[in-house]
Amino acid sequence: MPKGRLEAFSDGVLAILITIMVLDLRIPRGASDLAALRAVLSPFVAYVLGFLYIGIYWNNHHHLFQASHSVNGKILWANLHLLFWLSLIPAVTAWMGQQPFRLGPAVIYGLVLFMSGVTYIILQRSLVKHHGKDSRLQRAMGSDAKGKLSIALYTLAIALAFVNPRIPYVLYLAVALIWLIPDPRIERSLEKGNSAVA
User: Pairing with 128, which of 28, 62, 119, 181 sits 20 to 30 Å away (CA)?
Assistant: First the structure.
């Protein structure tokens, strides 16, 4: 079946998630100086991290489906599974912003990121199975070292939260920074495919 509706639905959900997160930000009350910003600094930093993660997933989701031709029922469910975990990011981001460097938010945020990463891999594998192991999509994805590294770092962050709840935030930011460097595999594959057709 065509992939257009899945892409449009996913884009809409991710746009709503970003909107929900920004609506949770509050304007500083009281004096209009830098001291008033301290009260909203933690929620803002949490928002930036949450925005980065949703943006990273949107970007990679877009590239993944650019290299795909069609979808099936399993892919639709795999995509919904991913969107479920991503839909929890605004809630855990708000909690993290309200209770910075506490064990509960640090662990639950990591769990949501871990499950988002796992469900993204499930979505990738569903697409590869649908398109074939010798497909351009499989060649473009390669070994997915960044995806596997992310899962390992989320696991480490959750474990280290019990040692010091500040450590996971460094690892969550590190994973986001790893993904901010664009992954050119799919773009290169698409360019090769287009040049072969031309």
Answer: 181
